[in-house]
Structures are given as C-alpha cells and as structure tokens.
C-alpha cells in the first residue's frame, strides 16, 4: 500500500496477519517512494538484522518523521507495537563544518544512540557510524551518503571516547580516549558548550598556543575537532598526550612532601619547559601542582630505580599542562588580566585594575611557591598563617620558613626561594637565572648564599601550617580551614 500523493515511505510488518502466514521469521518491508530520483538521500540506516527489517533511507529534507501511525503525517511508517505514533523526528542541520542529522525522541519506548537513551523531547546528533535503536527491536548503523560525509574526519570516527574522567575545570572536562587506528591512549579536553565570548577567546588563545609549541617538558598536542552536540551548540575537542603518572599535586598529597633531590629534578625539568615558553614570549600564568604532570617510566624486572625517584620508578619526565590562561606576550610588553590560582599568583597580578600590569616574571613567582610547597608540604601563603589575609600576605611578599618544617632543608634552597618570592618583579630571578642557580648547577654564583632563619610560627592565629595533604583530605577552602583549625 503506497501513499503516492505524499510520496511517503511505508514500512509494513509482514507478521500483521498470522492467520494468512505461518512463517515465524517475519520481517518488515520498506517501500521508499523517493527512489524515483526526485529527492536525494542524505543517509541510510543500515539494518543490523536484515532477516527481520530492511534498511531505511533518510531523504534530504528539512524534517523526516518516523512513527507507527498512518494519520500523523509520518514519512516513514513502521507497523510495530513498540513504535510510538510519532516515534522520532530527523532534522537536517547545516553546520559550519558540514551538514548533519539531529534526531529528536518523541516516543514512549525510547530512541537510543550508541545504546544511550536520548529521552523524550530531547535531541541528539547522529554521526556517521553511530548505532541507532528505535525502541528495543530495531537497530541500525547510520551511514551518511558520500556526498554528505564531512570533509574532515570527525573526532568520533578517529577516537573512542571512554567514560574515564582525568580532570575537570571551570571551562572543560578531560577524558581518556583511544585512537581507533593506532590504539594510542590520549587525553581529550572537552570544552563546555557556551556562547560566552570570554570562554571563546580563551579557547582560541589556548589552541593557538598549543599548535605553536613543541617541547619534551610540555604536554603534547595531537589534534582539534569542532563537533556539533545539538541543533544550536557545538563544542571543541583538544586531543592531547596522556601522561601516565598523574599530577604533581597527587604526588605531594600521597607523600606529604618531596625530598630535596626529588624536588630539584622536578623543578629543573619544569624550568626547561618554562625557559622554552618564555623564549617564544609565552607566559603560562597558572603554574601550580595540578598543572604539572609526571610521565613515569617504571623499572623492569631486575632493574633498580634511579635516584632521585621512588622505588619501582626508573625515570620521570615532567610535563607542563593546561594552557587555558597562557598568553603570547612581547619581550617588552605587559598584560593586565586578573587570573591565576590564588595561592600561586604573583603580587602584581593582585594590583588594582587601574594600575595592574605584569609580564613573564609572574611565572617565576609561581615557581618559588612550587618549590616551597614541594619541600614542606604546605604553601607559603594561606589564611591560617595570618593575619594578615592570604591576599595581603602575597601583596606584601610576607612569608617565612617555619621550624621544624625547614630545619633540614639546605640554605641554598631557601636562598633560591627568597630570590623568586620577591615583591618587585624586576628584582625577581628570570628563568635563565634560576636555571643557573647553584642549587641546579652546583657552582658558586657571584651573589653569596643567604643564611635565612627558620622561625616559629608567630602569627595571630594559634595555628600550625596546614599541609596540602591535609587540605585535600578535608576538602575545605583556605578560609574554612582557618576557621576550623585556628583560633
């Protein structure tokens, strides 16, 4: 039976009349009236069980309706009790990269993409190669016709995205993925879809930087994709090198603090990556333990670990990550944006917006804080070490080396930190000067090594410093920690 006036595709279930047909292996028959060439096919839903139901061709129309009812103006009619009167609607959407199909679920028994329920009244993108299920019985693979396949391979054609979350931030989530062809496991930074102009600028800036950098101590960049996720929104996937050892933050939390020789090697590698960035006029602006990744090579059977690493660690390669706040900046230029992580941000970043300006030296302040945190396990600036407040401590470069935490740390290390945590950025060590400090070179420098006193905590609070490990275990902010643990 054909609806020739409306040129509809009609799908009949041959099993509607069991009295006339005793064959139990019945299948639905698709009759497509658009096969006369008047309407081009956009995609084919390829049946996963051709013994029961045929392929369905999706015509290149603005809207294609699928359902059971013959009176609801459905373009494709499926006489199956699990199929709703109007089960789903296909829409052809024009996107900046290419056209694509959006499917809206209007059913009671569900429409599924890759075995995930869309949900009634919700929509989902159908990509080439996706599995589409109509109710529980009809399963198809989506195959775009050659004329409509995207010119650029989509992320989902090239990678398998897992549910494993590697990290979460304000603007994006990082998940694990695997390259379908090579099998290489990578990290994918998936940006939250938004029309926010600030986030768009940040994404473009991060992408521009990642494309232009390449260094063994910086996380590797593989590819980028812009993918539609609904009719009106799209998101960006940045495919990055996956680092197996996790964050420096996790290492500090697990161990409480790091040894001097261990810290020396980690910071030395960090400085080499930072030296490269500064040499091409890039300021990172968010150096902290969470953005320092560790690629760990484990020992093999019978192989001893290498100093300064832990047991079962043969070597560690440090990788600088997360360039969301990074920026190209000229040799003699300044930038003025208030950004960074509070405990690691330099004093000049906290200046009044009318007078705020800073350059690459903000990264060197962060390096000083990082060395401090690695060696004693807590930051030099925090609410519990006040008064004054953490912001005022940073603005005044007010910090100390507290006993007994610093009693066993060599003077040469304290000397380096004191030359990095300097209020005046012009007097702060540059990355080149830091790399040439005696702690890394074991050579004498023109300036004598300072002997800095270790002092007892004499702050207004009756409170000892709270370690990174304790902070992570409590899950509290600096201010709440100060309120809970300090008088």
Anisotropy-based shape: elongated
Name the CATH superfamily assignment of the largest domain: Transferase(Phosphotransferase) domain 1
| Average pLDDT metric | 82
Largest sheet: 7 strands, mixed
DSSP strand content: 25-35%
- Total separate domains: 3
CATH fold-level name of the largest domain: Transferase(Phosphotransferase), domain 1
Give the CATH class of the largest domain: Mainly Alpha
**Main β-sheet, spatial strand arrangement:** 2-1-6-5-7-8-11
- The SS-based structural class is alpha+beta
- What is the helix fraction of residues, given as a range? 10-25%
Number of helices: 11
Radius of gyration (CA) equals 30 Å
Uncertain runs are: 1-25
Description of the structure:
With 487 residues, the protein is α+β, with helices and mostly antiparallel strands. The chain folds into three domains: 140 residues, Tumour Suppressor Smad4 (Sandwich); 84 residues, Phosphorylase Kinase, domain 1 (2-Layer Sandwich), CATH 3.30.200; 238 residues, Transferase(Phosphotransferase) domain 1 (Transferase(Phosphotransferase), domain 1, Orthogonal Bundle). Helices cover 21% and strands 26% of the residues. Strand 14 and strand 15 form a beta hairpin. The longest helix has 20 residues. The N terminus is likely disordered.
């Amino acid at each position: 039976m054909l609806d020739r006036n409306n040129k509809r595709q009609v799908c009949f279930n041959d099993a509607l009349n069991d009295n006339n047909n005793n064959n139990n292996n019945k299948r639905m028959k698709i009759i497509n009236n658009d096969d006369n060439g008047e309407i081009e096919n956009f995609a084919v839903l390829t049946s996963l069980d051709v013994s029961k139901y045929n392929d369905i061709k999706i015509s290149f129309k603005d809207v294609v309706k699928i359902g059971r009812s013959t009176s609801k103006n459905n373009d494709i009619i499926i006489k199956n009790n699990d199929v709703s009167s109007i089960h789903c609607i296909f829409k052809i959407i024009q996107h900046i990269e290419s056209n694509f199909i959006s499917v809206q679920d209007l059913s009671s028994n569900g429409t599924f993409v890759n075995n995930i329920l869309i949900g009634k009244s919700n929509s989902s993108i159908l990509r080439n190669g996706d599995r589409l299920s109509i109710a529980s019985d009809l399963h198809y693979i989506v195959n775009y016709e050659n004329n409509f396949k995207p010119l650029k391979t989509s992320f989902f054609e090239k990678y398998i995205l897992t549910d494993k979350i590697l990290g979460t931030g304000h603007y994006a989530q990082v998940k694990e993925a695997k390259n379908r062809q090579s099998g290489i496991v990578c990290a994918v930074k998936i940006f939250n879809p938004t029309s926010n102009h600030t986030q768009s600028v940040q994404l473009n800036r991060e992408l521009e930087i990642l494309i232009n950098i390449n260094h063994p101590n910086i996380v590797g960049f593989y590819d980028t994709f812009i993918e539609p996720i609904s009719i009106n929104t799209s998101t960006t996937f940045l495919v990055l090198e996956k680092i197996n050892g996790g964050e420096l933050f996790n290492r500090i939390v697990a161990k409480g603090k790091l040894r001097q020789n261990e810290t020396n090697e980690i910071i030395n590698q960090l400085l080499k990556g930072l030296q490269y960035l500064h040499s091409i006029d890039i300021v990172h602006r968010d150096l902290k333990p969470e953005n320092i990744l560790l690629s760990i090579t484990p020992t093999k059977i019978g192989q001893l670990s290498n100093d300064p690493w832990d047991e079962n660690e043969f070597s560690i390669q440090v990788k600088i990550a997360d360039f969301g706040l990074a920026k190209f900046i000229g040799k003699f230029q300044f930038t003025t944006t208030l950004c960074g992580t509070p405990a690691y941000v330099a004093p000049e970043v906290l200046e009044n917006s009318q007078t705020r300006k800073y350059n690459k030296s903000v990264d060197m302040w962060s390096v000083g804080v990082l060395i401090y945190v690695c060696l004693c396990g807590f930051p030099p600036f925090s609410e519990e070490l006040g008064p004054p407040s953490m912001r005022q401590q940073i603005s005044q470069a007010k910090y100390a080396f507290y006993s007994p935490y610093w009693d066993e740390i060599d003077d040469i290390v304290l000397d380096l930190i004191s030359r990095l945590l300097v209020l005046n950025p012009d007097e702060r060590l540059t990355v080149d000067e830091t790399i040439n400090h005696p702690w890394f070179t074991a050579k004498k420098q023109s300036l004598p090594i300072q002997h800095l006193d270790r002092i007892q905590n004499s702050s207004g609070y009756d409170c000892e410093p709270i370690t990174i490990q304790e902070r992570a275990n409590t899950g509290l902010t600096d201010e709440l920690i100060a309120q809970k643990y300090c008088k």
